[in-house]
Amino acid sequence: MAVVLPLAWKLWQTRNMTNIKGLVPGFIKRGIKAAISSPTPQGADAIEQARRAVEHDINTLLPPSKLTTEPGISTAAVFHNFFADFNRLCDENKEESLKILKKDYPALTSVAAPARDFLNHCSTISPPLDSAVRRQFFNNLPFVNSPLSYELLNYKNKLPRVGLLYYPNPEPKDFLIDSLEGLCQVDDMEPGELLSRVWQGRECDFNLYRQILKDEIKSELEKLPQSFWQHFPDQEWFLNEITQHTQYQMAFKQLLDQDYWDLIIVGAMETSLGHTLYDCLDGKRPPVLYFHHGHLSGEPLENLFLKADHYLAKGKPEENYFLNLGISKEQITTFGSIREEAFPRPEAIEAERHRQRLALNIPDDATAIVYGLTLDIYLYEKKTCEELTELMIESFAKLASEEKVHKPYLFLKYHPAPRSDKYFSFSRKQMPLHHFYDRLKPLGYELRLIKELKPYLKAADCFVAHESATLIDALELGCPTLSLLYHQGKGQPLMSFEAYGEHKSHRLLTDFDEPATIASVIKEITDCPRQQVCKEGETVWQAIFGQGRTDSVAKMLKLANSYLRSNSE
After folding, report:
1. How far is 478 from 351, CA to CA, in rounded Å?
2. Which residue blocks in 361-415 are alpha helix, DSSP H?
3. Contact between residue 293 and residue 167 where contact means Cβ atoms under 8 Å apart
4. Please, which residues bridge with residue 464 across strands?
5. Which tens digits make up the pLDDT trace of 535-550?
6. Are residues 290 and 370 in the same domain?
7. Domain membership flag for residue 14
8. What CATH number corresponds to the domain at position 472?
9. pLDDT score recorded for residue 298
């Protein structure tokens, strides 16, 4: 608590700043409120009371130290009383004996020498405070040994700062951190944290400021026609959203003006801060790289407004995506896989498949299908989740009744909730589990609801999903896939049209295909010989990525280094 309280106290001095949602951790808020609610004496009386308390604690709570170089010191239990013997030889100026000791035990002697020097200096400090300092001798040996040890405390001070703007998915973020580690300070640009930085020490009441800003915004929003408001939950909700993000945008702009970052890597240009950066690109700002937080595919609905100094593509499909936007190839750096070093060998795929089937109690002769369910966030027009539920239930029904698939096992993996509510799933609400269970169980399906995807992909004969990034997970684990496009337009699929080719084990359909067609394709995939599955999987992986994670990390490191150097010149 003592470490974090000073920063939090500065926030409190702006009067009740701890009410800012997401700005200060809850335990700090509680500690501050508890501290300021306790009655304390004022002025000289408070100083005298504190002085007496310090004096009492020093004299009663600090035990005398036995860490000394005085003659007679006994550390017999520690390597044959080495330190006592070392001190005796030093006191007696036995240079030859010390040389022999150093030759026999170079590391131990190199510790004993500065320890002796440190402890001798402590003799000038009055007891019992000298004991507190003595007990720190080992922690401070690096500073006595080398001036370079100062970097252990201030290792980031001279490093450039690279901001990561919006990376909720762990894999792209971990890839960037691995690439930048040791090169720079990596700064997670969480909006509430940015606001906290610009408000520290500001001579202004935060709550009063926020209310005045809210009133100012409200007076402008009242000019909007009634037809505008019919789209939103209510006017107060919209007002609060705009007020909050206006503060985030102003905080971001202030930090840009202060040259706070040496490089910014953007994961989502379509966010409020992403659009703020877009509007500041012609002004004072660091270099900007665009590395999407997920996988870019389809129509560029997120990129109506997109501009950066350089664009980072995860494989050939994203490179094509950027080229189709009109971005020159010179502005694009294409990586390989950010997950795996190489496509797994066939024997590894088969061994892992067998192991996981044993662990998950899936018979060897069963047909195991994993279905990644989706959810609707109403961002663009597509089939509703109700329509997709009916489409997929009918497809799986025909797979059993008409295609006569053998021992069908269906594993349902629902889409994670877009908001952090661990007790509610939008995907479960929109595509109810009981609809699948009630209609497919009578057809002989073994249905299971699963939480973790990876073990089941290793055991599965086919993974079906609606253009989900998890299709890449399946590919890299050697699992055959069927991707269902949301559209029938020109937008490139996640793994690109070229990647599919004439393959039998990785297929592409749409949500507009007939259930009979979907069922037939799933049957073809599950009937594909295992040797062919492994061979085609590697062909698709090579077409998309062509190189592994470490090669990609090295390429990212080189690119970031070039921009950091050019920005510092």
Report:
1. 12
2. 385-401
3. yes
4. 371, 482
5. 999 999 999 999 999 9
6. no
7. no
8. 3.40.50.2000
9. 80
